[in-house]
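Figure caption, in words: inputs first, then the predicted bound structure.
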Amino acid sequence: MKMSVIGCGYLGAVHASAMAELGHDVIGIDVDAAKIDLLRAGRPPFYEPGLPEILTSATASGRLRFSTEIADAAGCAVHFIAVGTPQKPGSYAADLRFVDAAVESLLPHLSPGDLVAGKSTVPVGTAARLAALVAPTGATLAWNPEFLREGFAVEDTITPDRLVYGVAPGEEGEHATSVLNDVYATALAADTPLVVTDFATAELVKVAANAFLATKISFINAMAEIAEVAGADVTQLADAIGYDGRIGRRFLGAGVGFGGGCLPKDIRAFTARAEELGRGESVVFLKEVDKINLRRRQRVVDLTVRAIGREVWKAKVTVLGLSFKPHSDDVRDSPALDVAVQLYGLGVNVTAIDPQAIDNARLRHPQLTYTSDLEDALRGADAVVLVTEWPEFRGLDPEWAGALVRTRTIIDGRNTLDAAAWRAAGWTYNGLGRP
Ligand code: UGA
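Bound structure (uridine-5'-diphosphate-glucuronic acid present):
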C-alpha cells in the first residue's frame, strides 16, 4: 500500500521504516529538515536498536522515502499521524498543536476514500473533532494507537501484541477497518489480537494502558517507601506478589521511578482531560502516582547525600545512566538526568556517563561533566549512583570498580545489582526499599 507517515520522531520514523520493511510504499514527512536529511542518509536521529538496519534496507529497496513537503503525501491511500503530543507548558494538558497542524496541512492533499489514521496519543474526544475536519475532503479518519516501547520499538511495530482501531460507525468505519487490515495484514495473519471499536474507546485504551503501567510502578515504589521504614525488602516483596498470576512481576521494578516522553505526560494529560469532562475524581489517584514517582528521585538524592556524610560540595559522585531507561538515548523527563542535575544543584562534583544519551543530556544540561569512559567516570568517586540499568552498569565488577573509586559506596537506584556481591567486595550498598 502507498502510505504517508507524518512526523518522523521516535514513533513515526520507526513506523515508517517498519511499514516499508513489511512491503508497503512509504513516505515519511517531517517539518524538521535536519531530521529528514539524517533519515535520507539512513541515519536515525535517535538511538533505537534495529532501526538503522531496517531504515537502510527499506531506503535501498526504494520503498521508503522522506520529505519535508506535506504535498508529497498526496496520492497515498493511508496517512498516519505520528507527531508528538507533549505536555503543554504551564499545564498538565497535552499540547495538540502538532497534531492539529499535521491534519490541517494534510487536508488540501486528501482525496475521497483516503484514510487518515492517528497514532499519536491524544486526549479522548480529539479523534471525533478531527474527523469533522477531514470529512469535507471525502477522506475518513480512524484512531490507531501505538503501544511500542522505546528500545524495542522495531519489534513492537512489526510484531505488535495487539492492534486497536477506533473507527466511525457504519460504512465509513467498515472502510477504515478494511484499509487498516491491509496495512497490518502480516500481523493479522500471525493472529495478533485485534480490537475494533469507536474513537473514544481507542483513545482511552492508550492512556489507560500507560496509566495502568505508571500506577503499577508507583504502587511498588509506595511499597518501597513502607519497606524503608519497616525494614523490609521490596524486591523480595515484588517477587512474592509477582508469582500471583493476577498481579505478575513485570513493571514491579522498584527504584528511581518512571520517566520518558510518555508515561509522565500521559498520566498528567489524562487527569487534565478527566477534569475537563467533569470526572477529575475518577483519576485523582494518578496525581498520587505522579507524586510517589517524583519522590523516588528525591530519595535517591537524599540517600546519596547521606552516604557522602560530609560537605557534599567536596565530593565527587559518579552517576551511571542518563537516559530514562536502557537501550534508549531519550532523556525526556528522565529520572536519571534529574538526579544528576539535583546533585549538581547541591554543589556536588557530578560526573555522568551513559552509553547513548550524553549528547541529548548535554543539550539540556551543559553544566554537568560527562564522560563516555567508565574508568574516568569512576576514578576518585566518593559515591556511585546507578540510575539507568544499562547492561554495562549491571555487569560492573565490584572489585574492578572498587579499585577506581575513593570510597566504596553505591546507591543502586534500580535495585539491579547483586547486593551481597557488592557488600562482599567491601562496598556500602544502598538499594531502594531494601534494608
Ligand atoms: C511506554 C509504554 O510501555 C508503551 O507501551 C507505550 O507505547 C509508550 O510508553 C508510549 O506511550 O509511547 P516507554 O516510554 O518506551 O513505553 O517505556 P517503558 O518501558 O514503559 O518504561 C517507562 C519508565 O518506567 C522507564 O523510565 C522505566 O525505567 C520505568 N520502569 C519500568 C520502572 O521504573 N519500573 C519497572 O518495573 C518498569
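The radius of gyration is 23 Å.
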